[in-house]
Amino acid sequence: MAINIAPKSIDTELSELMRDVSSGKAQLPEFQRSWTWDDGRIRGILASLSQGYPMGAIMRLEYGNESVKFKYRTIEGVKVQGVTPNHLILDGQQRLTSMYRATFSRDPVDTKTDKGKNIKRYYYVDIKMCLDENQDRYDAVIPVPEDRKVKTDFDRKVLLDLSTRELEYKHEMFPINIIFDSSAREDWADGYKEYHKYDKAFMERYKQFRTDVIEIIIGYKLPVITLGRETPREAVCKVFENVNTGGVSLTVFELVTATFATYEFDLRQDWVLCRDIIWGKNEPLNTDVMHGVDETAFLTTVTLYSSYFANTMTTCKKKDVLALPFESYQANKQAVLEGYKMARKFLFNQYVFRMRDLPYTTQLIPLAAICAVIGKSTFNLPQTQNILKQWYWCGIMGEMYGGANETRYANDIEDIVAAIHGKPSLNRTINSAYFSATRLISLQTRNSAAYKGIMALVYRESCRDFVKGTTMDIVKSMDEAPDIHHIFPEAYCIQQGYRKEKWNSIINKTPLLPESNRQIGGDAPSKYSNKILKKANIDEVQYRTRVESHLVNYEAFINDDFDTYFVDRAKAIMKVIEDAMGKIIADKSSEQTIHLYGVSLE
């Protein structure tokens, strides 16, 4: 059912917004990043402001919804403490902070140069330049250092001194940080006129400046969109994502972080500790295979695990993660961390050692949650491993984790835990998985999950490097970094006029170490095999064993019989896929398969 959050939009005077910021009535939710604008951008927005140019809407959320508890903080530079806000700013922080610091606060603005150097600046507007139509208004906004002296020659020469009111009057530089203080503004105007002895030219210039610049700024209005306090968290998240396309994206994790902060709990800091455990930072075998698990994936896993044990429907959609109780997180995160440890071990047993070779990072969410539910002793049982393997490979070869997967995660944890415990199971992922014989030819690049999965299955067959003869176990894989190479080389295949869809498909590719690839070059197998025999100092019997470990018909390979080799290797790859999935590939003799391969693959 759609939620009507009915936002209200009202044009609001900038002066009112500045007062709300200064008093703490308008604050930031904790998930907002820090203010980042540099000196150039501040000058730009002040120039636009002085000309009355539009600068986009401000979006804020009414504070006070008991179900949307966000920790909050004041805008940078605001000194009040302990004030409960009326509104939280969702979009417009950078603009409001820049204008508050430059036009309302009396302190120098802590900003940066365009090269990132920290500086402190006050901002003035040059009255003469503002009234000169030939001058760019940006150039009329003058930044000066904290001592209000612009210097050169390594601070030995003062180019502009505005350190006293009299010097401001002399140079006709209006300090923009008094613009919203009517008393200070009028005092400055009186002093300016008195300094210039009420000269008519100066009196007229200030009058025009007041009309063309000051009144434009103090009368400036921004459209302010206000979300009511009844707005749910998931709507706040979606709205923020839509309006904040140019800034840091607000993730589910950021919102949950803000919620947990009301318990004086730093979720970001806690994630760092959890991340090190998940990634296996202190494990003897330190690989990057789990580095794709980010903070949102971890929260989703905790939510999935918590939901499984709740007396409700198992679910882990975004709204469920946003509603994850702090108590559930604290109670269940350790079990989930243990689940990720088991998931990492499981990946190694499937010959997936590196993140680049991991078919789906998303599949780790239900895998870790399942492991967390069943526990270590059950996880280690051979029967459990067989069930997990079939589910895992069906998910990969069926290419079932590439889109929105939250419903599948829920199905997985229910089905696989039931199967492991010997209870009736729908086995929805396993039963839905399907792999087509024709898919092998379309697997041309390493980007797809099925491509990575097949390479892992070749590893799992204990394939040996052609030159070194080593199997691609975890140590060898991480130490020597095998890569995927053509068995019949690209240059040779092009020369022979073979169809690219065949020679560039996964059927003609295998993992090899760099030395083997150098020996292969662009030669026919019969030719490069002689080089490898000499380089490796082995006989043909040993070499044959190494080649056949890659699911290759050696006779066809050594005789450069590409067509026979190609069909036989396709059959061998499909056999290991069927073994992994526990399912028969049904279209091996279909019309489309015979058209692509030239023969049936039965």
Give the helices and strands, then pairings:
Elements: E1 8-13, H1 14-23, E2 26-29, H2 39-50, E3 58-62, E4 72-73, E5 87-91, H3 93-103, E6 109-112, E7 118-126, H4 127-131, H5 137-140, E8 141-144, E9 149-152, E10 157-161, H6 165-171, E11 173-175, H7 182-195, H8 200-218, E12 221-227, H9 233-243, H10 252-260, H11 267-278, H12 295-309, H13 318-322, H14 326-349, H15 364-379, H16 382-397, H17 406-420, H18 428-432, H19 439-442, H20 449-460, H21 474-480, E13 483-486, H22 490-496, H23 500-503, E14 509-512, H24 514-520, H25 525-536, H26 540-548, H27 554-558, H28 562-581, H29 591-597
Parallel strand pairs: 2-5, 3-12
Antiparallel strand pairs: 1-12, 2-4, 3-5, 6-7, 7-8, 7-11, 9-10, 13-14
Helix pairs in contact: 6-7, 12-14, 12-15, 14-15, 15-17
Summarize the structure.
This protein has 29 helices and 14 strands. The protein is an alpha+beta fold and 602 residues long.
Would you mind describing this structure in some detail?
The protein is α+β, with helices and mostly antiparallel strands and 602 residues long. The protein has 3 domains: 248 residues, no CATH class; 182 residues, no CATH class; 147 residues, no CATH class. It has 29 helices and 14 strands. The strands form 4 sheets. A 6-stranded mixed sheet has the order 1-12-3-5-2-4. A hairpin with a 5-residue loop joins β6 and β7. α12 packs across α15 and α15 packs parallel to α17. The relative contact order is 0.07. The model has no long low-confidence stretch (mean pLDDT 92).
